[in-house]
Amino acid sequence: MFLCRRIRSGTMGSALQLSVCLAAILASYVVDSIMPCPSRCLCMQGSRIVYCQRRSLPQIPTDIPDNALQIFLNDNSFRVTTIERRNFSKFIDLEHLYLSECGIEKIEIDTFIDLKKLKFLDLTNNNIRLLYDFTFRGLNLQHLFLNHNSDIRLSRNAFKGFQTQGLYLRGCSLRRFSRHTIAPLKASLQRLWLDNNSIKRLDYGLREVFANLTHIRLGSNPLTCNCETRWLLGLFKGSPRIFQGAPAPECASPFDLRGRSFNALSSDELQCGIPVFKDIQVLFRQDSGVLSCSAVGNPMPTLYWIKPTGEKQTYFPPTDKNSVQNTAALQLTSDKTKNLSGKYMCLASNAAGNVTLTFNLSFPWPMRTGSISPSLSPVTLPIRTVSISPTVSFETDTTTALPINHHNTINTKDKLNVLHVKTSPPVLNVAPYNEPPRTDARKETPVQGMYFTLHDIIAAVIGTFCCTVVLCILVILSVRQIQKAKLKRQRKDETAKHKNGQCVKHKQNNLGETKFEHSTMPELVEFLDAKPERHICA
């Protein structure tokens, strides 16, 4: 336009310059014609940048120019909370896409697969709950922002099929961060933000990925500092440049290390403890039951119930910071199609080692002869509880842990090899309680089962011994009291008899006293006997 003004003033009347000016004006109109702008958005002329942020858009506009390089859709509360491939498939030249604070809840698979030139994708502050497998397939980004998508879950293959140099997951309430999830980004990832999450443990398999980063943030996570954390502390001490520019990680547990920064921590302080079973219970009725085992350890162990068929159920440690033990309850139901008899193994595993406990069960529970007739009213069978003392000892290999796949879903059919675990667990043979037969059908009161544990027997023996000793002492004291009372009564009778006498012979008194006091002097007795009698009145 400046050139055209100079031409009109006559300073430069060249025909060539005039043609260039006209061509520029014509080109601007052509660009405007092929790049229409949505009514609520702002399009910078010639820049191919579309600004649609804070426009209260109900959904992604369909009339955004196809050749846009950057699209800003921030701060729009979309009514359509799912984004999919058709929303972006035409933007083949798009380089920057901003979708923060749009209320997005779901991203369909291959939504961005057509955006081959995309470098910057911002999905911050949305409500995304799950990243499905291959969500970002086909992308080669410089930055992927997923910050502050609270309670987001990452599927195992969420990042498979794409590359990015920066991955930002700050404030997403992540409880776990798997090495399998991040593995597809190993070759390209340089910057990783995991701060302000709920991560307690970082797997050793992440060490190789973390070591190749140029920057990482792990602050404000409730890390459990034990032997599993030594690799991370070693990386922090050995490669401090990776952690520069961000707060150092801190310990949230155990209690004696709570609040300790990695700057003030040594590897000798990071210790582990082998799992220990605390409460083992067996609850069952005639056709169903529950096997329950609880264990503690540092770190808190993962529990597995292994059935006679090899099928296993996995119970991960609770995420509640106030939890002190992990409990696994296995539900059993007997029917005609399933045979539940056999050995059931509860296995507790952590970084320090493994311990196992075996149950021998027999289904169905055998009924005694003369059981209740079906014509009688239904009776509630008593529930029997079998408990094992927490002081049960185990011979465990504390140097190696089982190679257990922690990513299996619950109740899978995978086989778990436990033959190489060096354990000698106690075997609990559980026999059911059978209700004794009733002779009188009119009595419907349930009969309570009598069952005893090892603790019960020991307590009964000690209690019986103590009761016997106390009873003997009471009997002895009672006999002595009776004897004292009888002797006192005899003395009282003798005193009364003596006082009520009319007259006692002096000779007899002297003789009695002499015999009592000088029974060893017979000559004196004879002398006294020879004296004449004298009567003395009382």
Structural notes for this entry:
- The model is unreliable at 1-13, 23-33, 367-450, 510-520 and 531-538 (pLDDT under 50).
- The protein has helices at residues 2-8, 15-34, 179-182, 207-211, 230-238, 454-500, 506-517, 522-530, and strands spanning 42-43, 49-51, 70-72, 82-83, 96-98, 106-107, 120-122, 130-131, 140-145, 153-154, 163-168, 191-193, 215-217, 223-224, 251-253, 273-284, 288-298, 302-306, 312-315, 326-333, 342-350, 353-361, 384-387, 427-429, 503-505, 535-537.
- It is elongated, with a radius of gyration of 46 Å.
- The chain has a nine-stranded mixed sheet with strand order 1-2-3-5-7-9-11-12-13, with no helix packed on it.
- The longest helix is centred in the C-terminal third of the chain and has 47 residues, at 454-500.
- By secondary structure, the protein is an alpha/beta fold.
- The protein is built from eight helices and 26 strands.
- The chain starts with a helix and ends with a strand.
